[in-house]
């Protein structure tokens, strides 16, 4: 499973890398601190899952997700954030999961194992 991490905090990149390394089937193919370069990457490369923060400079994680969906990209999205209040909006863009910071490794691993078990089935956009 090819995974991209999008978070404006470099420390989260390190934390996420450490946690994702616990799942053999996961390959981190990109890490980004801003959505514009991330969008360009996911548009031109195979990506199965994106871990993204809500609070990002210039474009929120939610707006990024809306732009992805508007352009027909169906990869799974896991929002990793400190904000509880955006969960309904995240699921409106077909979030695969919504995980609150500080993130627990067991929680993330369980979500990734579920995504792997679901195989290539991408969410259907309604």
Question: What's this, in brief?
Answer:
This protein is α/β, with parallel strands linked by helices and 126 residues long. Helices cover 40% and strands 20% of the residues.
Query: How would you sum up the global shape?
Result: globular
Query: What would CATH call the architecture?
Result: 3-Layer(aba) Sandwich
Task: Round the Cα radius of gyration to an integer and report it.
Answer: 13 Å
Fourth CATH level, the homologous superfamily = Response regulator
Give the helix level as a range of percent: 25-40%
Indicate the mean pLDDT: 93
β-strand number: 5
Low-pLDDT sequence parts: none
CATH topology: Rossmann fold
Order of helices and strands: EHEHEHEHEH
Overall tally of structural domains: 1
The first-level CATH class name: Alpha Beta
Class based on secondary structure composition and strand pairing: alpha/beta
| Biggest beta-sheet profile | 5 strands, parallel
**Terminal CA distance:** 24 Å
The order of strands across the largest sheet is 2-1-3-4-5
Q: What share of the residues does DSSP label as strand, in percent?
A: 15-25%
Q: Number of helix segments?
A: 5
């Amino acid at each position: 499973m090819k995974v991209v991490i999008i978070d404006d905090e470099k420390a989260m990149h390190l934390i996420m890398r450490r946690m994702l390394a616990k799942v053999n089937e996961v390959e981190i193919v990109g890490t980004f601190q801003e959505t514009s370069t991330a969008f360009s990457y996911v548009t031109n490369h195979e990506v199965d899952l994106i871990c993204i923060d809500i609070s990002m400079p210039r474009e929120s994680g939610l707006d990024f997700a809306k732009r992805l969906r508007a352009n027909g990209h169906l990869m799974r999205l896991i929002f990793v954030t400190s904000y509880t209040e955006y969960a309904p909006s995240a699921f409106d863009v077909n979030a695969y999961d919504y995980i609150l910071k500080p993130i627990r490794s067991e929680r993330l691993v369980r979500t990734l194992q579920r995504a792997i078990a679901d195989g290539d089935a991408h969410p259907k956009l309604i």
